[in-house]
Design a protein that fits this description.
mainly alpha, elongated
């Protein structure tokens, strides 16, 4: 059961990250620091999930 909850949490974080990136790319002035931090967070979550 904890693995299922972890998978659900991972999916929700991924959806949130993609939504944030789409919203951020639509702005005329892009904040590269925010995009970079979000990408690092997302890739760290993905790597952590794949290793466990």
């Amino acid at each position: 059961m904890p693995e299922t909850l972890e998978l659900i949490l991972f999916i929700l974080i991924a959806i949130s990250a993609v939504g944030y990136l789409i919203k951020d790319f639509q702005k005329p002035k892009k904040r590269t620091l925010g995009i970079s931090l979000e990408c690092l967070f997302f890739s760290g979550q993905f790597g952590e999930y794949r290793l466990s």
